[in-house]
Specification:
This protein has four domains: 142 residues, Cupredoxins -  blue copper proteins (Immunoglobulin-like); 35 residues, no CATH class; 123 residues, Sandwich (Immunoglobulin-like), CATH 2.60.40; 116 residues, Sandwich (Immunoglobulin-like). By secondary structure, the chain is mainly beta. Helix content is 8%, strand content 41%. Strands 22, 23, 25, 27, 28, 29 and 31 form a seven-stranded mixed β-sheet that branches. The protein has a six-stranded mixed β-sheet with strand order 12-9-14-19-16-17. The protein is globular and about 60 Å long. The structure holds copper (II) ion.
């Protein structure tokens, strides 16, 4: 029997998919804060109930969709019955409003605490997620869409998709299994089989480590391919797909099965249009695709885990088109994410051309066994802070000395990719860049938002073992 909570969340995502067609009168007045509530909910996954988190507004819609020109004015209400911090990923407010507690500006939100946030948002496809303990793994994630003036004028149907990896196991138990800590036996669900994969059986390609965690399912807007999220196209069938990788530790290939789409933005930043049918999407990254769904046709949008056949996805369907069964496993194992797409990108509005004032190198270090991930061989407790000065053009060189790729995220800034494996480019503006195994990526940004700012790997379990440090300036 469908669970009522699940039905309401599905309805919520359906409404999100139709957000662009909402009459303007429904938009919240700019001076009236929206309330976002963090709470537990029950989600049906493959026929079993799971206790997960959600972040919803007063209508039960996940996350926030702002109209062009609207402020990010949000009262965050913590009804999760435990402390939390919600980070506005992709936004660049002052550090006190970044939604994290690690740098000491603010404490986590206590249970039942309500905290206001108010800043001018950055347009584009962004998201929000817990930056507290392992809550992100339990789906404390949601879209944060800020529409631009161009979006408001375009005759395009907005469809937002957030991808997640899902396990019936307690995230603390997953973490303990990875790190060899004592297993936890109290937090697991429904008497599931809790066997973890041994390190020997972890998927590995060409000496690279790909997936740390065995999951029970991969979700697109809370659903698996057994019962996928279906969007019926409108008007001329043109769709802007706003894809968000909200997974805790999974990188996906977005695969349109040969249908051509145009990539127009990454991490909320416009890029020179790139056409394709298959696109990499690392943890925390976003990708905006424009595609046409001809009358009478169906376009499945798959997200396949790298190094695996497992996939999730959604369906774009023209009115009346017949939707067939979509297997949850692809015919072939997907290879590891690579840098070919990244190397093909260029920013529409990149940094001004000027030499860097300062350059810092950061080594990405660590191993699967023992399971320990670090920056410059140091954990968060012993971190080497990067110091810069306000107004400087800063280059950050990420040198990956490990056998695994790491999606590196810098808070409070967007940076431009200026070199991949020694080859200079004027690449995309982003807030999260995948640094390939044994590879080097250089990013550049202007130090225009003074404060203490986290930078870290966006694989949750890597971050939690110590792959995080901070950038500091006044
Ligand atoms: Cu990592």
């Amino acid at each position: 029997m469908p669970h009522p909570n699940r039905r309401s969340v599905l309805a919520a995502f359906a409404a999100l998919g139709a957000a662009s067609t909402m009459p303007a009168g429904l938009a919240v007045a700019a001076d009236q804060p929206r309330r976002l509530t963090v709470a537990r909910r029950t989600l049906d996954v493959l026929g079993r109930p799971a206790s997960v988190f959600g972040i919803v507004d007063d209508h039960g819609l996940p996350g926030v969709v702002l109209s062009a020109g609207e402020r990010f004015a949000v009262d965050l209400d913590n009804q999760a019955s435990e402390a939390t911090s919600i980070h506005w990923h992709g936004q660049t407010p002052p550090p006190q409003l970044d939604g994290i507690s690690e740098t000491g500006y603010v404490a986590p939100l206590a249970a039942a605490e309500l905290r206001p946030f108010d800043f001018a948002p950055r347009p584009g496809t962004h998201w929000m997620h817990s930056h507290h303990e392992l809550q992100e793994q339990n789906l404390m994630t949601a879209p944060l869409i800020v529409r631009s003036n161009e979006d408001e004028l375009a005759d395009v149907q907005d469809v937002t998709v957030i991808l997640n990896d899902f396990s019936f196991r307690d995230p603390a138990q997953i973490f303990a299994e990875l790190t060899g800590g004592a297993g936890m036996d109290h937090g697991s669900m429904q008497g599931m089989d809790h066997s973890a994969m041994s390190m020997d059986s972890m998927p590995s390609m060409a000496g690279m480590d790909l997936n740390d965690v065995e999951y029970d399912a991969f979700l697109a807007n809370d659903r698996t391919l057994a019962d996928p999220f279906v969007v019926t196209t409108e008007r001329n069938g043109r769709v802007r797909l706003r894809l968000i990788n909200g997974a805790a530790s999974t990188a996906f290939w977005i695969d349109l099965g040969g249908v051509q789409a145009t990539a127009v933005a990454v991490d909320g930043n416009d890029i020179t249009a790139v056409t394709g049918s298959r696109f990499p999407l690392a943890q925390a990254q976003r990708l905006d695709l424009i595609l046409d769904v001809p009358a009478g046709t169906v376009v499945p949008v798959f997200a396949q885990r790298e190094g695996d056949r497992a996939r999730t996805g959604l369906v774009l369907a023209a009115p009346g088109a017949k939707i067939g069964k979509l297997p949850a496993e692809a015919d072939a194992v997907a290879g590891p994410l690579d840098m070919a797409f990244e190397a093909s990108l260029s920013a529409v509005s990149g940094l001004t051309v000027k030499p860097a004032d300062v350059r810092h190198s950061v080594m990405l270090t660590g191993t699967m066994a023992p399971y320990s991930w670090t920056l410059d061989d140091k954990t968060w407790a012993n971190r080497r802070k990067l110091e810069v000065s306000a107004g400087q053009r800063v280059e950050l060189e990420f040198m990956n000395h490990s056998m695994m790729a790491h999606p590196m995220h810098l808070h409070g800034h967007h940076f431009q990719i200026v070199s991949i494996n020694g080859k200079a480019l004027s690449g995309a503006m982003r807030d999260t860049i995948m640094v390939p195994s044994m590879g080097t990526v250089v990013v550049a940004f202007d130090a225009d938002n003074p404060g203490r700012w986290l930078y870290h790997c966006h694989n949750l379990y890597h971050m939690m073992t110590g792959m995080m440090s901070e950038l500091v300036y006044v």
